[in-house]
């Protein structure tokens, strides 16, 4: 699996109606490893925020002495952010608007995260 | 936090709040301190400023040697427990440098994101009509020394 393969994978995610962007994020440093996004979506900003959320979730589960999270979902008025863990420290992240088929997106991200791992 | 240029305070405060940075040092490209947050010893401030300015100057020269036409704007050192972000940026007062130390509660991505906003906010906050302050003026070192003494409880 390399960057061109990742880009094909991400384009599959953004092919779902309502998905504004998909990216592979290095959760350690909050940087974009690969991305596919509509104009106007700043994937570098999304990566930074997603990595911050992931780090907070990891700290929370560590404090709770429970298993580390493998999926995160943050829903807001304007849309949803999904993050699914791949091979450490990579996470697959998607940003969807309110029209997206979230069930299909969840399934696809889960399948692709296995490939990413 | 301590600032020698009052208009730097608000953008820097916002940057520190949003990025969760542990230490921050804003200086001129020659290493003269404009603002600092988190340092507990004046000696550390002066040493970090000089070393940070030196690293960026070295990197600029390295960029020239390897043919990087536009240089390298940012230097990042990533360690196990904390990282260091070092970047030059233009202001109405000339080229300044930001040195930021961040821990695991932040990331390179977060610092990159909010540092970009900080530099934009700083340029917007800069006084437009006042004459550029001469940072090499005779009183600068004395004022800085007084500020450092006050900051570190030695006044």
What layout of secondary structure does this protein have?
The complex is a heterodimer of chains A (117) and B (155).
Chain A: H1 3-14, E1 19-26, E2 31-37, H2 43-64, E3 71-76, E4 79-85, E5 90-97, H3 102-116
Antiparallel strand pairs in A: 1-2, 1-5, 3-4, 4-5
Chain B: E1 2-3, H1 9-19, E2 23-28, E3 33-37, H2 42-65, E4 74-78, E5 82-91, E6 94-103, H3 108-125, H4 138-151
Antiparallel strand pairs in B: 1-3, 2-3, 2-6, 4-5, 5-6
Helix pairs in contact in B: 1-3
Walkthrough of the structure:
The complex is a heterodimer of chains A (117) and B (155). By secondary structure, chain A is of the alpha+beta class. Chain A contains 3 helices and 5 strands. In chain A, strands 2-1-5-4-3 form a 5-stranded antiparallel sheet, sandwiched between helices. In chain A, strand 4 and strand 5 form a beta hairpin. Chain A is globular. By secondary structure, chain B is an alpha+beta fold. A 6-stranded antiparallel sheet of chain B has the order 1-3-2-6-5-4, sandwiched between helices. In chain B, a hairpin with a 4-residue loop joins strand 2 and strand 3. The longest helix of chain B is centred in the middle third of the chain and has 24 residues. Chain B is globular and about 40 Å long. Chains A and B meet through helix 2 of A and helix 3 of B.
Sheet with most strands: strand arrangement of chain A: 2-1-5-4-3
Biggest interface found: A-B, 12 and 11 residues
Q: What is the tally of helical segments of chain B?
A: 4
Order of strands across the main sheet of chain B: 1-3-2-6-5-4
Helix content of chain A: 40-55%
Overall shape of chain A = globular
Beta-strand content of chain B: 15-25%
Could you provide a short overview of the structure?
The complex is a heterodimer of chains A (117) and B (155). Chain A contains three helices and five strands, in the order αββαβββα.
């Amino acid at each position: 699996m390399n960057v061109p393969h990742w880009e094909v994978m991400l384009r599959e995610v953004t092919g779902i109606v309502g998905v504004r962007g998909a990216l592979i994020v290095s959760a350690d440093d909050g940087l974009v490893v690969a991305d596919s996004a509509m104009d106007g979506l700043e994937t570098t900003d999304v990566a930074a925020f997603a990595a911050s959320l992931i780090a907070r979730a990891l700290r929370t589960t560590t404090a709770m002495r429970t298993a580390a999270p493998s999926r995160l979902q943050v829903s807001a008025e304007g849309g949803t952010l999904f993050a699914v863990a791949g091979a450490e420290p990579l996470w697959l992240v998607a940003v969807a608007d309110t029209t997206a088929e979230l069930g299909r997106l969840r399934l696809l991200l889960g399948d692709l995260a296995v490939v990413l791992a | 936090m301590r600032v020698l240029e009052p208009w730097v305070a608000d953008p820097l405060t916002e940057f520190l709040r949003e990025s969760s940075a542990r230490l921050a040092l804003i200086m001129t490209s020659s290493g003269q301190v404009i603002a600092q947050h988190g340092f507990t010893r004046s000696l550390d401030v002066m040493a970090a400023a000089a070393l940070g300015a030196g690293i960026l100057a070295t990197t600029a020269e390295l960029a020239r040697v390897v043919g990087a036409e536009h240089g390298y704007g940012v230097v990042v050192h990533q360690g196990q427990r904390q990282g260091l972000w070092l970047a030059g940026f233009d202001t109405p007062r000339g080229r300044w440098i930001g040195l930021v130390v961040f821990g695991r509660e932040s990331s390179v991505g977060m610092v990159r994101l909010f540092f970009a906003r900080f530099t934009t906010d700083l340029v917007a906050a800069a006084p437009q009509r006042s004459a550029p302050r001469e940072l090499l003026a005779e009183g600068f070192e004395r004022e800085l020394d007084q500020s450092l003494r006050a900051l570190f409880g030695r006044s």
